[in-house]
């Protein structure tokens, strides 16, 4: 049910070591999840691209709220996930 979505997102937050926001609107369940992850200090990564403010205003907002941007490679046009892997490796090592 829709009203259980926030509780489900909280459970996901508790079980996760990091989250990636691919595309979110400013007013959305995804943004609720973003706020939960930031509140619990779970690393948040945000896919960043051109016209983000128009197409995915939540991504722009998540970055402003302290989400770590993930940039696309110029040649491959794929998101560079090295920062995510480095963070997860560091957390496992500690």
Give the helix/strand layout:
Elements: H1 5-15, E1 19-21, H2 29-39, E2 44-47, H3 52-55, H4 57-64, E3 68-70, H5 82-93
Parallel strand pairs: 1-2, 2-3
Which fold name fills CATH's third level, the topology? Rossmann fold
Instruction: Pick out the low-confidence regions.
Output: none
Distance between the termini: 38 Å
Note the run of SSEs as H and E: HEHEHHEH
Q: At the first level of CATH, what is the class?
A: Alpha Beta
* General form: flat
Helix content: 40-55%
- What composes the largest sheet? 3 strands, parallel
- Number of helices, counting only DSSP H or I runs of 4 residues or more: 5
Q: Indicate the CATH architecture.
A: 3-Layer(aba) Sandwich
Query: In total, how many beta strands?
Result: 3
- Provide the spatial order of strands within the biggest beta sheet: 1-2-3
Strand content: 5-15%
Round the mean pLDDT to the nearest integer and report it: 83
Rg calc: 14 Å
Return the structural class.
Answer: mainly alpha
Number of domains: 1
Q: What would your notes on this structure say?
A:
The chain is mostly helical and about 90 residues long. The protein has helices at about 5-15, 30-40, 50-55, 55-65, 80-94; strands spanning about 20, 45, 70. It starts with a helix and ends with a helix. Helix content is about 50%, strand content about 10%. Helix 1 packs parallel to helix 2. The protein has a single domain, classed as Rossmann fold (3-Layer(aba) Sandwich).
């Amino acid at each position: 049910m829709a009203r259980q979505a926030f509780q489900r997102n909280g459970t996901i937050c508790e079980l996760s070591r990091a989250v990636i926001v691919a595309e979110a609107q400013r007013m959305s369940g995804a943004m609720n999840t973003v706020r939960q992850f930031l509140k619990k200090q779970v690393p948040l990564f945000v896919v960043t691209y051109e016209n983000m403010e128009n197409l995915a205003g939540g991504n722009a907002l998540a970055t402003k709220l302290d989400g770590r941007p993930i940039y696309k490679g110029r040649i491959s046009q794929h998101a560079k996930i090295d920062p995510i892997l480095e963070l997860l490796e560091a957390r496992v090592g500690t």
